[in-house]
Specification:
This protein is an all-alpha fold. It has 4 helices and no strands. Helix 1 crosses helix 2, helix 2 packs across helix 4 and helix 3 crosses helix 4. The chain starts with a helix and ends with a helix.
Length: 71
């Protein structure tokens, strides 16, 4: 990896840890959706929430991460 890529990955890791601290369910949803590639329905089963709650939370988590990465 280049130095810039390495720094970006560290930044993303730090943001995910912060997100998990503030909103543990959001962190789990990001893991399921982004890293494991689970569907909304599969993620809902994993986290014990309804699909509509997972959709909302997934949207909020992505919005938060995007805002932090863009800053």
């Amino acid at each position: 990896f280049s130095e810039q890529m390495s720094n970006s990955l560290r930044n993303i890791d730090e943001l995910l840890r912060t997100l998990e601290t503030k909103q543990p369910t959001y962190g789990k949803i990001v893991e399921c959706r982004f890293f494991a590639g689970l569907t909304i329905e599969e993620t809902a089963k994993v986290v014990g929430a309804s699909p509509s709650t997972v959709k909302r939370s997934w949207h909020m988590a992505r919005t938060w991460l995007h805002a932090k990465l863009s800053a």
